Amino acid sequence: MLGHNKSKTVLLSGNEAIARGALEGGVGFVASYPGTPSTGITTNLMRIADRFGMHVEWSTNEKVALEAAVGASWMGIPALCSMKSLGLNVAADFLLNVNLSGTGRGGIVIVVCDDPRGYSSSNEQDSRFYAEAAMIPLLEPSTPQEAKDLVKYALTLSSEKQVPVMIRSTTRLSHSRGVVVTNELTERDWTPLEMIPDDLYNVPTPHLKHRDLLAKLRGIADGFDKSKLNHLEPTGARDFTAICSGVSYMYAREVIERLGLTRRVGILHLTTTHPLPQSIINDTLERCERVLFLEEGSPFIEDATRVLATMLDGKRVTMYGKRSGHIPAYGEMTPDIVKGALQSILGIADDEVEAPSKDILERIDALLVPRPLTFCAGCTHRNAYWALTRIRKRLKGNLIVTGDIGCYSLGVFYHRIMSTMQAMGSGLGTANGIAQLKQFGLKTKTVAVAGDSTFYHACLPALINARHKNLDLTFLILDNSTTAMTGFQSHPGSEAQGESDERVEIADVVRGIGPDHLLIGDAQKVGATTNMLWDAVNKPGLKVVLLRGVCRLERRRQPELTVKKRVFVDPDLCQGVGCRVCVGEFGCFALVWDETEGAAVVDDDICVRCGACIEICPQGAIKEESE
Amino acid sequence: MNTYNIMIAGVGGQGNLQCGAVLADATMEAGLRPVVGETFGASRRGGGVITHLRISEEHRGPLIPQREVDLMLGMEPLEALRASRDFAGQRTMTVMSDMRVETMDTLSGTRAYPSTEEIAACLRDLCGELYVISPAEAMDTLGTSRVLNAYMIGAGFCLGYMPLKRNHIRAALENMRGDTELNIRAFERGIEDAKSLTTRSDD
Fold it and tell me: Labelling A316: which of A218, A426, A455, B139 has CA 20 to 30 A away?
């Protein structure tokens, strides 16, 4: 859908539109690390990479991705690096240096997809402050069409000014679809420069590089000031103006129209939100009495505008937003929040919509059974955590499990076996601190969990630290050979590798670091896994347990690998309601409680026939059908 | 025209997102502008999925404002109730499938799955109109519940007031990946089954 040559009207998601913009902008080099809601950008470009002669890769982490992309830009190749909000934290160290050094003539666009409300994230950070910290231009599209057009614009701007240009999307743009008119694709030429440009470092005078960057930024601000990317609707400002960016602009337009306020409330739509276009903002503030800030995340535009306002002579404008409490300072923006704020500030009612009674909502709440995320039927992560719950029991609770980012993060919900979950690699990092406390008398055993893709992304420094400090801990790697959470992207250890890629196996890397014990097991075998982990936890020293598992979603795409024999519960052996270990504790949702029989049954439609539950039934009532 | 808002509520794996894609494509066929907002998070791991579809003459935001849903397609009773709680109102017609997808709590017997009648009673009070449809027999005949989404589009098309024509949706189903013929049969069967729930005639 993305690879057509012509100008066409098509339906694209925000992420697809960004990918199309990259193609139209002549991008030759794309590097990223998967993370919802950004993943689709690179996935889409990867599909058409060969056809257009682009290089598109999943790098080991966001920092490497950005470094690789900038390397290409230095050598004259237009480059794109997309990531989720949290990924920019990883890449920030490099970003806050290369902004000063310069990015060459190729051009580098960083697309960062924030996730307000944290639908697929462990925080809801607003990444725009990185644009301010790095003193680089920032663009915020509000529709898929704008997203596409801005990528092209950003590539040109970056190439011209030789600074990274950041585009900020949010979940509601990346994961929404709208009509986009595409442009024709132009000829592309990706001949790298023969030699790297001069002066790509900041020492010994980073302060002078800083001075030069600020001058560059002033030039960019002048351009933004004249840019049609920011506009006031209608041009003659009302005495009340909503200042918006991103999808909030779409909500504002709709709500203002819906409440019949088009004659009372104007809209200032900002796309270039760093550096802020001062003239159009000053102009707006001069002409109106009140403004309302509508933006997703932190009060970023709001704060900058409040600062600008202090420099206006005499004029006092009343400002509403997150600072004033009229807009919640957490969660995602919705049309209802916009409506509520306008109604409360302007003192108007909505006659069209009637809120449901408290009584009906209470009746509904009483019926709503939650639907928490769970491991898939047959997921081997469940087996590993089940084993850890058995070990915790045997240790009378004296087991600390620190966790990490991936599908296996669901371990925090699985009998609360996993106690922590922060950044990529932090499970092992924090375990370094906890295990070190043995010298102060801590007796509790420590296990750190990480997945395979996470291992490459961020676990190596912590593993080396653990070796170097001679820590007594168990590092459990749940290896299902794919980046499962984000949709099965390959990584250096994946079984299937691209033609020109070389596989880097986890076991080889671990052996190089040299733990006291490296144990390799099969997570499909619950009993053996439990024994191996028990053995590891009780051995002194640094133990690495590499559990080979299977992603059932990935395997479903390869049905020939599924075990063929049916698994069933023998009703004569099932101990019924007094036991319930399978449905109540193991909790694979292919195991269903049959109220009338008073026994567990296997749901054949859901069961993947992995046989893991056969081992966990204390009565041996779960069986594999014989041929 | 006013924006026509369709919300599709279901569970990961039910083809909720494809349902939105087909209706968006049909909207394009009708010469209107669709906007689809998808809320799936980590839905593949058994969570709920909500799709917001706005049909309009201009570009709209990706979220339907609360109580402004015109047609709620409930692919699953509990999820239809959950989405309706936050988004449905007097303007809403809900068309709900009575085929359940159990939750961890209902499977393990920790909590009871509410009866269809209890759910319907709440929805009747909350929404302008409610139709409960039973796709089980149709799914049996068609041989797979993977076409529940096409079936529900048919039911919604028949009962609701989508600004789309039957041929727009058929054309969109033809563009869809998978078994086109089966999807179209499911769509037509959805229309047929829905007709028996109402005295109104369709196009």
Answer: A218
Claim to verify: residue A424 and residue A531 sit in the same structural domain: yes
- Whole domain around residue A553: which residue ranges? 380-494+504-559
Order of strands, sheet of B71-74, starting from the edge strand that comes earlier in the sequence: A9-13, A176-181, B33-39, B48-56, B4-11, B71-74, B93-97, B129-133
3-state secondary structure of A273: strand
Q: Is the ipTM of this complex over 0.90?
A: yes
In CATH terms, the fold of domain B4-195 is Pyruvate-ferredoxin Oxidoreductase; domain 3 (3.40.920)
Inter-chain CB proximity A354 and B62 less than 8 Å: no
Taking only the tens of pLDDT, chain B with its 203 residues reads: 899 999 999 998 788 889 999 999 999 999 999 999 987 665 556 788 999 999 999 999 999 999 999 999 999 999 999 999 999 999 999 999 999 988 888 887 789 999 999 999 999 999 999 999 999 999 999 998 889 999 999 999 999 999 999 999 999 999 887 789 999 999 999 999 999 998 655 44
The backbone torsions φ and ψ at residue A615, rounded to the nearest 5 degrees and listed phi first, read -80, -20
Are A259 and A342 in contact by the 8 Å Cβ rule? The answer is: yes
Q: How far is CA A396 from the centre of its chain?
A: 37
Among A145, A248, A332, A373, which would you mutate to test the B interface (most chain B Cβ atoms within 10 Å of its Cβ)? Answer: A373
Clarify whether residues A101 and A213 are in a common domain: yes
Q: Domain of A241: which CATH number?
A: 3.40.50.920
State which residue of chain A sits closest to B118, comparing Cα positions.
A367
Instruction: Verify whether the Cβ–Cβ distance B33 to A372 is below 8 Å.
Output: no
Asked whether the beta carbons of residue A583 and residue B109 sit closer than 8 angstroms, the reply is: yes
Instruction: Judge whether A583 is closer than 8 Å to chain B, CB to CB.
Output: yes
Residue A428 and residue A309 in one domain: no
Helix A62-74 × helix A85-101 angle, to 10°: 30
In a domain, A197, yes or no: no
DSSP label of A321: S
Q: Is there a single domain that holds both residue A33 and residue A72?
A: yes
DSSP tag of A470: T
Rounded Cα distance, A256 and A285, in Å? 19
Q: Are residues A398 and A530 in the same domain?
A: yes
Q: Which of residues 28-47 of B touch A (CB under 8 A)?
A: 28, 33-42, 44-47
Query: Is residue A410 one of the residues assigned to a domain?
Result: yes
What CATH code is carried by the domain that includes residue A134?
A: 3.40.50.970
Q: Which of A336, A364, A373 sits opposite B85 (nearest CB)?
A: A364
Q: How many domains does chain A have?
A: 4
Q: Which residues lie closer than 8 Å to A398 by C-beta, 6 or more apart?
A: A392, A443, A444, A445
**Inside any domain, residue A365:** no
Q: What would the two tokens of residue A144 be?
A: 């898929």
Distance in angstroms (rounded) separating the CA atoms of residues A180 and A344: 35
At which residue do the structure tokens 């590798």 appear?
A497
From first CA to last CA, the distance across chain A in angstroms is 47
Which positions ≥6 away from A77 have C-beta within 8 Å?
A28, A29, A106, A190, A192
The alpha carbon of A244 is separated from its chain's Cα centroid by a whole number of angstroms, namely 24
Out of B35, B45, B91, closest to residue A410 by CB: B45
Partners of residue A145 in chain B, C-beta under 8 Å: 59
Same domain (yes/no): A538, A618: no
Reduce the DSSP state of residue A272 to 3 states and report it.
Answer: strand
In terms of domains, do A537 and A568 share one? no
Hey, of B2, B25, B45, B78, which one would you mutate to test binding to chain A, going by the most A CBs within 10 A of its CB? B45
Chain B residues closer than 8 Å to A553 by CB: 44
- CA A193 from chain center: how many Å? 34
Which residue among B65, B89, B104 places its CB closest to the CB of A587?
B104
Q: Domain residue spans in chain B?
A: 4-195
